[in-house]
Amino acid sequence: MLKNIAMLVTKYGLAYYLLFFLPANANNEFDLFSADNQNAPFIKTRMNILNSLSTNERTTQLAILYFQYNRIDLLQPLLKKIPTSPTIAGVSLKPFLQGYVHYYSGRYSQAKPYFKKAANQLAHEHLVSETDLSKDKWLAIINMYNAMNNAFLQQYTEAIKQLANIRVQAEGHGWKTLYAKADYLLGQVHYELKAYEDALNHFNRAEASYPSTDTLLIAEAMIARAQMINIVGSRRKAFELLDKAIETFEQRGDISSLAFGYLLKSYFFSKDNQPGKALLWIEKSVKLREQLGNDIDIANAYVHYSGILEENQLLAQSVIFAKKAADLVEGTDDITGQWDAFGNLAMILHAQEKYKSAFEYMHKAERALLNKARLDITTEAARLNSEFSLEIEKLKNQTLDDKNALLQSKLALEAQKQKLQNWTLMVLSIALMFIIAVVFLIYYLYSKNRQLAIQDPLTKLHNRRYIMNIGKQYFTICKRYATPMTVVMLDIDNFKQVNDQYGHKEGDNVLVFIANLCKQTLRSSDFVGRIGGEEFLFILPNTTEAKSVQFAQRLCNDIRESSVKQNQAVGCITVSLGLAHYEDFYQDFSELVNSADIALYQAKANGRNRVTQFDFNMSKALLESENKSKPVIA
């Protein structure tokens, strides 16, 4: 689903600029795409182009219109016919659209050279009657799509840097739509990084910055904002925004956006425990996606369709569409789509008790999630299994040969029979040793895979799910045997400023630095895990309230002092800590964590770089405000 959101959020802005900035000739060939005509239905605009323009003009304008509506099925046949003219768009429009077709189809590596070619041609060609400012705008648009292509190639830092520069450039020149679009795409990259609150902030700013005439772009912002609010806010509000955006797409005849809107609506109903309605809307989405013919979009719809079919107890149909989705994404660069499709198929096969097939597809999903790592566990396991089967088959054949030889010489060669029996026993012993070696190797691969599932890859601490499971276990022990227990929440102060000023690489170094100090400070019986971008959770079993306060204060001081001593590139690093101690009235572990989170918030509010212990005398208004503004940790 992540890939579909990216396609939707990137498609309208460029089309608007292509239309707005292309130089008009004496026939006013681009008047069709003014702000008013931009809001006309697709079919009406298309008919106007066909009826009023010459062949070359018609081809160019149809290509731009198809791009605006994301109609790759109609755009691709036109690519060879697009004329080249000595204008900004004429020089680089054709290679750009070629790159966009590859980009939208999930072939990011193939798209990149086309975007580069478009930018190079624009930079070096001698253009007739074009201003440098218009040239800069068109180059910014090309770079904007190249940045999104980089993001899907896992080059997130480069993508964020490019989009931030475009946003600054657009703001300086007063390019309002381009300024909002760059902000919007920054939100999309943050969505890919699962920084949902940051993504929502970018989407909110983008929607507020668009001119009121950019109705499609505003609808696009609404649908993305609905996606974010469904994650971090109210589903009712998410439904309202989604319906409003769908209404705009229906009026405009934008079937590509409608396909995504229907899919998202199905997803909302699924999360709202209404599988019947979810099935109704996903069927509409699948029908439109199949009509449009883009494999990546179709695969995305099939993944969700198979999940809804499974929810409705239609397992036979579910596995068919899950397999189709996996086949469609197999040869693309769409790592997110591969992870969705392979993982979804593995879960459905597991539900059907087809464990071997499920195992294979789950490992495919893991390989996609690890960005095509060289250590391919599934391939290695398959190779070992094949070699093992081959050796077993050889041993079986050899054993049969030995038995035949023994039968033929049984009467005359009793002594040799004993010798051959001993040799056979030796061979079987070797085979047994081989089997044991393979079992140990498979166990090693399983253990390594399990470690990846419970460990944060950057800091090597426990990940969120695993540290929460540990906490629940110790909470149960604490409640049953009345032993003390403390939970501490740690948050890095001003971490967003570190990323903005020094870059995400230096931000990662700060996270690793703090993680190492946390591990050094803990006792062997304590636990720590990373539960968010810059948040860490400590579980201190059998620790009194006084001891836990001492621990937290010591850790706070050590981090600050060590960052100065080690001359960190970002300067002095400080943290805020919230502490909550177990009491009888806590019903489950999440309540205890929420108390520590409230204390952390209070530490932040009081100036940061401090330890704050949860106190029920904290104002009720603060507590209610926190519960509304922050998602409950579960």
UniProtKB/TrEMBL annotation:
Enzymatic reactions: 2 GTP = 3',3'-c-di-GMP + 2 diphosphate
- Organism for this UniProt entry: Litorilituus sediminis
Chain positions of TPR repeats: 180-213
GO MF terms here are:
diguanylate cyclase activity
Report the CDD domains cross-referenced here: GGDEF
Q: Which cofactor does it need?
A: Mg(2+)
Spans traversing the lipid bilayer: 423-446
Q: What is the lineage of its organism?
A: Bacteria, Pseudomonadati, Pseudomonadota, Gammaproteobacteria, Alteromonadales
- Protein name according to UniProt: diguanylate cyclase
